[in-house]
Amino acid sequence: MPVVDLSAAMADTRARRGNRVVLVVYLAIVAVAGVMGFVIGTIRPENLDPKFLAVVDLPPTPLGMALYGVLTIAFVLGVLLLLVRYVADRYDTDSV
């Protein structure tokens, strides 16, 4: 009877579950940013001038502010998560 190494399969399953959790948290944070942008746009404070990455002008309406919140948080948090993933993929666990 052949010996089956389940540790690699379990590690792969854990990694996929971990990726899914990070994705769900990421999407939840982006959704909250959109809702908060919509609320701020509804309140309409004075001197509201949203600019995505200081380049793209967006209207100071509830929809424009929601778009600004979603785009800004998705971009910044996405870049940070990709940086963490890049470093984690290159970290040698056997050297510890």
Structure description:
This protein is mainly α. The protein has one domain. The protein is 70% helix and 4% strand. The two termini are 34 Å apart.
List the helices and strands and how they pair.
Elements: H1 6-43, E1 51-52, E2 56-57, H2 62-90
Antiparallel strand pairs: 1-2
Helix pairs in contact: 1-2
Q: Tell me the helix content.
A: 55-70%
Strand order of the largest sheet: 1-2
How many helices? The count is 2
- How would you characterize the largest beta sheet? 2 strands, antiparallel
Terminal CA distance reads 34 Å
**Which blocks of ≥5 consecutive residues have pLDDT under 50?**
none
Mean pLDDT equals 84
Supply Rg: 20 Å
SSE pattern: HEEH
How much of the polypeptide forms β-strand, as a percent range?
A: under 5%
Structural class: mainly alpha
Shape descriptor: elongated
Q: Total domains, how many?
A: 1
Number of strands: 2
